[in-house]
């Protein structure tokens, strides 16, 4: 299984979500949140230079001379977004592209800043290797049990998990 | 996300990023993002440009002929595919098929019981024996069934007795002695046929939005139809959706036996006005929302069909015990 940014994000957010996504069970979300996210991307990136770049199995929102930029609708799960971005930085670094990461949130609910700068260093690079190993083990194993967390009610898997 | 019924003759085409239905009265623009499925209930022309547009937007088209008989479904390319689940679905067919099939028949009996109990409570004492049968005898028979054929026999018995008891439920004098299909012979059979095929297509649409494979079924024979899983999953909803609609139409005199049916030499179908009345009430019932006990939110019966699909997926992937839709899910 090729690990992608979404999987890294889900791994931090919810292990069960990560497992389902990795095993190609993705369910439709009846909320408008997904549509909002999609529309946001369309408005921001359509026909713009250096945006929505696909390299291997990662898809980067925007690449500039200094930064790799990841846009998020909200700062609901900063940790997950941070590691997703670090993962992109790592993939790019392996291709000889050294950049700093920048997270930009359209809505800030948890903190006052709209942007967060993320840097890849030895420590988190090693941690990423660990995370990827764990993800590989997770998705090969049994599906994790349902655990109600914040965000469950907005998740596309909510009905599936709680029926 | 709605269902669009096109009842008149006309042409359906793509106009920019919208749909355009043109009939005698003129152009009718339908925003594509608002619909999930389209029913063509009359002679309607369309082209491949439209079909690929519908496909892009994952919209399913069901078509019926002028007499209201289901003719087919235009199925866009699958958008949810999981090899892992497909394997599990097949594997379950060999190993746990009977278990799933039993749950379907049990759900039919529970839902008929709950539908009819309402009438019993309001004084229709004649159905007492049938209710008792559903509660005890029938339940035992389902549990004891060892093969699919045994189970199908029990299912047949449930429906047969149900049809016999219908006369105690309805307050209009309809000669309904037995179920006759293809073609139906009287207004009751005409409505049952129309309602069942509508429910069948509704279920096809809902299954399309899950990873389940439409052709692998557990109660109905695999060879019966291309979409036999839809036959399976629609069973539990027949009493709640189709028959409740029919009883309401008859008992509240919304449908008129003389006015709304077309009686040919030896068969009977709903006429245009009749179909319209039926569809409006059928949709209303599907859209009806109720508080769901474990989800803790309001869901419609239409979504409940999809959630039965989710339950099956969960059973296949995680071996979680489950029961198809019944009243216990309501708060």
Automatic annotation (TrEMBL), chain A:
It holds the Pfam family Cas_Cas4. InterPro entries: CRISPR-assoc_prot_Cas4, Dna2/Cas4_DUF83, PDDEXK-like_dom_sf. It is an enzyme of class 3 (hydrolase). Mg(2+) or Mn(2+) required for ssDNA cleavage activity. Residues 4-162 form the DUF83 domain. The keyword Cytoplasm does not apply. Its EC number is 3.1.12.1. CRISPR (clustered regularly interspaced short palindromic repeat) is an adaptive immune system that provides protection against mobile genetic elements (viruses, transposable elements and conjugative plasmids). CRISPR clusters contain sequences complementary to antecedent mobile elements and target invading nucleic acids. CRISPR clusters are transcribed and processed into CRISPR RNA (crRNA). This is CRISPR-associated exonuclease Cas4.
From TrEMBL, chain B:
Its cofactor is Mg(2+); Mn(2+). Mn(2+) binds at residues 155, 220, 235. Transmembrane segments: none annotated. One of its GO terms (molecular function) is metal ion binding. Homodimer, forms a heterotetramer with a Cas2 homodimer. CRISPR (clustered regularly interspaced short palindromic repeat), is an adaptive immune system that provides protection against mobile genetic elements (viruses, transposable elements and conjugative plasmids). CRISPR clusters contain spacers, sequences complementary to antecedent mobile elements, and target invading nucleic acids. CRISPR clusters are transcribed and processed into CRISPR RNA (crRNA). Acts as a dsDNA endonuclease. Involved in the integration of spacer DNA into the CRISPR cassette. Belongs to the CRISPR-associated endonuclease Cas1 family. This is CRISPR-associated endonuclease Cas1. The gene is cas1.
């Amino acid at each position: 299984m090729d690990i992608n940014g979404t999987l890294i994000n889900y791994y931090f957010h919810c292990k069960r979500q990560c497992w389902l996504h990795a095993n190609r069970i993705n369910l439709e979300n009846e909320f408008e949140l997904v549509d909002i996210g999609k529309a946001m991307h369309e408005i921001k990136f359509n026909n713009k230079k250096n945006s929505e770049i696909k390299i291997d199995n990662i898809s980067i929102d925007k690449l500039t001379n200094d930064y790799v930029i990841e846009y998020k609708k909200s700062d609901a799960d900063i940790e997950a977004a941070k590691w997703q971005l670090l993962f992109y930085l790592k993939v790019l670094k392996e291709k000889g592209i050294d950049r700093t990461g920048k997270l930009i949130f359209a809505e800030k609910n948890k903190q006052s800043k709209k942007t967060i700068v993320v840097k890849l260093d030895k420590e988190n690079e090693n941690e990423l290797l660990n995370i990827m190993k764990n993800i590989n083990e997770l998705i090969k194993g049994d599906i994790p049990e349902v655990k109600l967390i914040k965000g469950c009610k907005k998740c596309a898997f909510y009905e599936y998990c709680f029926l | 996300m709605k269902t669009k019924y096109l009842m008149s003759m006309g042409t359906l085409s793509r106009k920019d990023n919208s749909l355009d239905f043109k009939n005698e009265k003129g152009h009718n623009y339908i925003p594509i993002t608002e619909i999930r499925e389209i029913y063509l209930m009359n002679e309607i022309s369309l082209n491949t440009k439209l079909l690929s547009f519908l496909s892009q937007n994952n919209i399913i088209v069901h078509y019926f002929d002028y007499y209201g008989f289901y003719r087919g479904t235009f199925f866009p390319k699958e958008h949810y595919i999981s090899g892992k689940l497909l394997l599990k679905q097949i594997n379950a067919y060999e190993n746990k098929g009977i278990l799933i099939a039993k749950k379907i028949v049990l759900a039919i009996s529970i839902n008929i019981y709950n539908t009819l109990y309402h009438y019993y409570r309001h004084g229709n004492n004649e159905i007492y024996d049938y209710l008792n049968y559903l509660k005890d005898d029938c339940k035992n028979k389902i549990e004891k069934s060892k093969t699919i054929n045994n189970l199908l026999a029990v299912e047949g018995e449930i429906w047969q007795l149900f049809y016999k008891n219908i006369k105690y439920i309805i307050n209009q004098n309809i000669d309904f002695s037995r179920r006759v299909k293809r073609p139906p012979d009287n207004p009751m059979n005409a409505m049952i046929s129309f309602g069942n095929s509508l429910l069948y297509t509704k279920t096809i649409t809902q299954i399309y939005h899950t990873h389940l494979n439409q052709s692998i079924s557990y109660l109905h024979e695999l060879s019966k139809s291309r979409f036999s899983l839809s036959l399976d999953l629609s069973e539990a909803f027949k009493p709640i959706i189709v028959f409740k609609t029919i009883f309401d139409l008859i008992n509240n005199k919304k449908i008129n036996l003389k006015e709304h049916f077309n009686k040919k030499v030896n068969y009977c179908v709903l006429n245009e006005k009749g179909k319209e009345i039926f569809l409006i009430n059928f949709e209303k019932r599907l859209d009806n929302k109720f508080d769901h006990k474990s989800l803790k939110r309001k869901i419609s019966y239409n979504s409940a069909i999809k959630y039965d699909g989710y339950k099956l997926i969960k059973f296949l992937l995680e071996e979680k015990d489950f029961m198809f839709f019944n009243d216990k899910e309501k708060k």
